[in-house]
Amino acid sequence: MELLLQFSTYLCIASLLLIISSEANTDQIPKHYVVYMGSSSISESSHLELLSSVIPREEKKRVSLIHHFRHAMSGFSAMLTEREASALSGYDGVVSVFPDPTLELHTTRSWDFLESDLGMNNNTSAHLSTKSDIIIGIIDTGIWPESPSFRDEGIGKIPSTWKGVCMEGPDFKKSNCNRKLIGARYYNNIQLTSSDGKNLTLTKAVTKGSPRDSVGHGTHTSSIAAGSIVNDATYYGLAKGTARGGSPSSRIAAYKTCSEQGCSGATLLKAIDDAIKDGVDIISISIGLSSLFQSDFSKDPIAIGAFHAEQFGVMVVCSAGNDGPDPYTVVNAAPWIFTVAASNIDRNFLSTIVLGNGKMFQGIGINFSNLTRSKMYPLVLGEEVAAKFAPASEARNCYPGSLDYNKVAGKIVVCVNDDPTISRKIKKLVLQDAKAMGMILIDEEKKDVPFDAAVFPFSEVTNLEGHQILRYIKSTKNPTATILATRDVTRYKPSPIVASFSSRGPSVLTENILKPDVMAPGVGILAAMIPKSDEPGSIPIGKKPSLFGIMSGTSMACPHVTGAAAFIKSVHRMWTPSMIKSALMTTATTYNNLRKHVTNSSNLFSSPHEMGVGEIDPLRALNPGLVFKTELEDYLKFLCYYGYSKKNIRSMSKNNFNCPRNCSEDLISNINYPSISIKTLGRHQKAKVVTRTVTNVGPTNSTYIAKVQAPKGMVIKVTPNKLVFYGGIQKRSYQVSFYNNDAQSGYNFGSITWLDGKHYVHTIFAVNTK
Predict the structure, then answer these.
(1) For 530, which of 53, 279, 632, 698 is 20 to 30 Å away at the CA?
(2) 597 catalytic, yes or no?
(3) SS3 682
């Protein structure tokens, strides 16, 4: 027994040593790290010297910078072991060291719907000079320069402020750039090669380098923000109309940082650094970290880059993410980022299902089916055509490998969506491969987002319609159906609705800033697309590849706000990013086209954690009356309250800023933001008081009166409740006290509106009561 115990002990020790050895070896495998050094001006040779101080002499080949940040910020990325990265993080002047994260892509009637016929409406055409010098930097998957959305007819010469380049590649020439697409950059893919299984050598894949878009995402977002006016744009007959960007006269600079697999955080940070140096006015980023793996602000490439962009007067607009409808999923939530949620517009895509008994159902989806009412096809449930030994639950969801292809061929199959890990695209590919005639999907969650099934007959219904279809199948021995080609329906009501996929607040990083900020169209958006022809069944018979496509995502909502911001910037050239942001936030609407409060896809009233302060209204934002200027000092105080050291804050801001004497996270609510959020307010505790300062950008002599909409059980007081502007006085401050008398537990929402008889300055607040 004793020998057995000794042997067991030896085994445990041996296993432990093996694990430790394995972990030690893993720690010593070089990985791509970002070394962020704030705003300090440090040369490339100094960065190399710093790198060589932690890398052993025998591995000097690794003393090489992958990316060097030297314009708006300082730092670099390189191959480091975990131990080397840890050593560097303790060096003077280093703010943070973190593994290069992989970020996700957050993937034209919309401008008509926003009632901002920019450049087309008589009331606004005077504002849109064809010589607009606003430059928008789109950081994405590149661009398709031949798209008609990027023609430069009628656009003036390239602004003198532009300092960027048009990089060439095997399939991209300098002549592809013009007065609309004034610049294009791409970044080499980083590859690691190993000859002996241990020593990793860094190489750069330059042979395929090009700014050309091979995904379509960057082309789509670019044209939404600043595409030229294109008449008779259509997606194979759907969504026909005039396509245009929010600011058709603005210039585009494309920065290709991403592929279909994702985006390197280090590369994205390099692109932001380049864009600021190149002279862009606004940066649009429809990309973000996964909501499950959000980083601290000092380790988030977008947050870092956007912070330095703000210091240079460059606005950064970002998508909120596509991880809704769960709360705490919003990303890109730093206060210096303009964070955008997604909504639908007043257009929908209906695909009619006709059953053998004559009943019809209007499902949602995009398909170019050649099926007709005159011929019906056998209709079956997924579990009825299950493969041998496949669980019925998997066959119901049309899992790969769960269906008997012989039983599926020639039939229309009903699938459900009990398991969200199996996407609609996978289900469609399974049935298409099995030679099914079509698919009816019963899915309550994604009913508001049309799926593009191309030529494959497809329609999606809710549980209510799905129940009736299932009842019909059970009522007859030979159920049949057909699925008709999609037709688009305009003037759809209600709109806007918060998209089911749109990520929700509050932010996991801090609940004392209300995120997302605003909402904009992001469902079923027609915009420029790369002409894809390589996917079987993607093009209707007899048609050429479309130059336009329909996509959904907060990726599409983000450039709507970018275009609106460029439009406002073209009129108010001296306005700072925070002034433009404030104008779009305080003039946003919370009402739909039924003149009722905006709802979500579950038909419930939408909260500010879903839609921010509301849907943007670019025309109203031109004349907001008052704006909240969030200064650099506000952001530095935010960093203090959040818990950053004085040393790091000074490094990031390049000045001798001192944090206030008393710092706590609760004080974040007090920075001069266009909305208010309070993480905790106890019942019958001392009132929470926040201060705001507004700047008058309207008539010199104005008087504003405060109107408060308070939730039940909460006492809100504004002091003073009258703001008078006259003579040279442009700024006024006021305080808002929040007292929890007997409000229901959880988040309560309300608003403070300043009225002068003409302007309507709306501030939303969110208060979490305990």
Answers:
(1) 279
(2) no
(3) coil
